[in-house]
Amino acid sequence: MKIIECPRDAMQGWKSFIPTQSKIDYINQLLKVGFDTIDFGSFVSPKAIPQMRDTAEVLSQLDLSNSPTKLLAIVANLRGAEEACQHPEIHYLGFPLSLSETFQQKNTNKSISEALQTVAEIQNLCSTHDKVLVVYLSMGFGNPYGDPYEPSLVAEFVNKLDAMGIEIISLSDTIGVSSPANIKALFREVIPAFPHIEFGAHLHSTKESAWEKIEAVYQAGCRRMDGAINGYGGCPMAEDDLVGNIATEIVVDYLITHNHKLIYNSSELSKSLLMCQKVFS
């Protein structure tokens, strides 16, 4: 199982600005754990997401010398992607593509058709800059806006992304409405249908329901999962009441309980858990 730690998602909606040095220290600590990837920041409008206005400065102070972990940055348009591509330390660019027309407008100020065109442009940019584009299908399990949603819509979007050559697609439960049943159903449909695509799960959840959702993801054959230590986070563009991320430590506990071999530094994870309390205080 690839674990993608998402301090960016934990930080972006936090009530007060987290000092730049605190971000640097925290992400440098996370780099010692051994995560596959860290979603560390975003190149988006500082007016839209002021918490991430220092992403470039944070990146310049990260110590990647002894870490196998790759970095992912979120972008919402071509300008942000062009900026991210100037940094050789970044391996992945992540783009939020929504199944909900309402949320696509709220999140990136684009229609779905415009966002799909942006995906194609960013994919071309990634190809020329040796980056990999990860597309997040947000509102992938339903939405609160009354926009049309059917599980078959997910496969339609995956088809379009497959035609563009997208290699990694993460099904995202932006507001915490997924259930073990629909998690299993969706992944069991798309994974066999698109074996050449790496599918991930980016779920928001209460801590009480996290275990059963992680189990559903694993049993459905998905081997890429996002989390955030202590379950912090949520999309500030979605609803007023943020539903936190799946807690990374619960993902780790589930995998260990089920005898899944994990290559990580448990003592550095413990240090990260302690530091997290200070960063988000």
From TrEMBL:
Swiss-Prot/TrEMBL keywords: Lyase, Metal-binding
One Pfam entry name: HMGL-like
GO molecular function: lyase activity
InterPro entries: Aldolase_TIM, HMGL, PYR_CT
PROSITE patterns in UniProt: PYR_CT
Pyruvate carboxyltransferase domain sequence ranges: 1-264
Xref: PANTHER family: HYDROXYMETHYLGLUTARYL-COA LYASE
Family to which the UniProt record says this protein belongs: Belongs to the HMG-CoA lyase family.
Protein name: Hydroxymethylglutaryl-CoA lyase
